[in-house]
Write a structure and sequence with these properties.
Layout (H helix, E strand, L loop, with lengths): L22 H9 L12 H9 L6 E6 L4 H17 L4 E6 L4 H10 L6 E5 L7 E5 L1 H4 L8 E5 L1
Helix pairs in contact: 3-4
Amino acid sequence: MKQEKKVSLISESGSPLISDPGYLLVKTVIKEKLPLTIVPGPSAIISGLQLSGINPNQFMFLGFLPKKENQIVQLINQLYTIKKTFPEMVFVFYESPQRIYRTLQCFKSLEWRSEIVICREMTKKFEEIIRGKAEELLKRNYKGELTVVIQ
């Protein structure tokens, strides 16, 4: 990859990285700051997990988060409780560009310390994978479809 050659990761059964340790390869690619993309399946949930570099062995899909801020805060508190019981649990949800700032602000105000990955416009011309803590991600501009993966 460092020689600008294309490399593919395939799985003999199912979607790569979901039931195998391929996420370790993705983490290395991310660490080396090399380009990464996927050939998508039918689900932004799985594509987001594959691109995140986060261990996907336990994950929970939340759909779109509630629209009201107090409901988001209540949900994040419930996610804290789940993390206490299942420390490896990863959360995946969809968010609109108009609401992502409020959502990130809620995570920041509740001192969520884990990595957040925002997968923007996956499989499209302006695909972008943005990683960081909530406070860092608040400094960005977002457009298009967003899939969020939280460690």
